[in-house]
Amino acid sequence: MTGFFASIIDWCAATKVPEQLQAVDIQGLFQNTHFLVPFIGMIIYFLYKQAVNNLIITALVVFLWWFSGTDMVTNAVVDGNLQLGKVLPVAGVGMTGLGILVYLLFIKDD
Are 76 and 90 contacting, i.e. CB atoms less than 8 angstroms apart? Predict the structure, then answer.
């Protein structure tokens, strides 16, 4: 099983996925009509279908993406040293987001 995960990690490193995600211009993305029109269309469709779970999950993903770009997260490692004062809030936000996803996907019945 570790070989399977190692191959996925090697593939992500070879395709430079983390670098591409860090290079995303969020402000430019939300001003680009090629992204914004389908995104707004998806939100309107979720509202029309009254898919509250999907709306919450979409909002949670956008929030976690925004949070990952804040100074608290980006400055959590300075010169290769982990800043212990920033670990608990970052882990708390991540675990809260994961808890909300687990609740919405597995526990809550529609």
Answer: yes
